[in-house]
Amino acid sequence: MSTTGNQFETGKVGNLHILPVMRVLTEDPKDKRALLKIIEKARGRVKEVGPGIPEATKRDRAATLKAEIMEDLGIEGLESPLIEELIDTIIHLTGENAALREKNESLKQESRTDPLTGILNRRAFQEQMQRHVALDKRRDRDNPEAQRSHAYVMVAVDIDHFKKINDTHGHLAADEVLKQVAEIMRANVRSTDIAARLGGEEFVLVLLDTDIENARTVAEKVRKAVEEKTQSEGIKIPTTISLGIAGSDGTDLDTVLGRADRAMYGSKNNGRNQVTVAS
């Protein structure tokens, strides 16, 4: 049976594939309006038939929803068995579609976060920084305000003698140290700032729209908190970090991160457990 309009020719309305029940559609515009009304109603009630609902409860709610839709449409004047099948199918597809979206969102989030610490991984960090680097390159550096602050300030963070922590206290305790360092970093920055684990014991903080002195203050707070608070199962694990700071300068991400890294290694060379600003 033929239909008109692109959304019906493709067998898809929004995100819902409806080819299994296309035979109930005719050239009559009122049937198409009815179909769209069914979809709209089902979408509006998707939480009742979507993911996380026990199957028995979902069946009961779907039956109630179907009855309401049939009543809204004045279904008795139509081909009831076919329309009922259509409603059943759309309700089912609505729930399945919501479950798929939730799963995809979860997988997307997992692909962006470090599984141990829960902060951004290297790939997500690089992706998120693209916009900030682009904004920085367009910054008017002749503006006095731009000269006082930076589009972003990079803070490279590395745990001192991490292998010794691992060898002395074991893998589980070392993992706990990594998680606590990440938690301390997040706790000391704004929600708009960026915290990421680049790999191993290497982390990075990106403080947006700020100056070097403020970044130094934040870095010192993080350094002191790590020194004072890291523990595993109630046992203090002596932990320090070395940090390096570099402000954005209109160059690319690798250049700014490289400057922050060199400053961080300057901290290590000068005795560790300190903050160094790139020259």
Question: What can you see in these coordinates?
Answer:
The chain is an alpha+beta fold and 279 residues long. 56% of the residues lie in helices and 15% in strands. It has 11 helices and 9 strands. The strands form 3 sheets. Strands 4-5-3-8-9 form a 5-stranded mixed β-sheet, with helices on both faces. A two-stranded antiparallel sheet has the order 1-2. The longest helix has 33 residues, at 80-112. The N and C termini lie far apart (74 Å). 29% of the residues are buried.
Sequence-ordered SSE layout with sheet pairings:
Blueprint: H1 6-9, E1 12-13, E2 16-17, H2 29-44, H3 46-49, H4 55-73, H5 80-112, H6 122-137, H7 144-148, E3 150-159, H8 162-169, H9 171-187, E4 194-199, E5 202-210, H10 212-229, E6 231-232, E7 235-236, E8 241-247, H11 253-269, E9 275-277
Helix pairs in contact: 2-5, 4-5, 8-9, 9-10
Cα Rg: 28 Å
Oligomer: single chain
Cα end-to-end separation: 74 Å
* N-to-C order of helices and strands: HEEHHHHHHEHHEEHEEEHE
Average predicted local confidence, pLDDT: 81
Helix content: 55-70%
Class by helix and strand content?
alpha+beta
Number of strands: 9
Number of helices: 11
* Major beta-sheet overview: 5 strands, mixed
* Strand arrangement across the biggest beta sheet: 4-5-3-8-9
Instruction: Tell me, briefly, the overall form.
Output: elongated
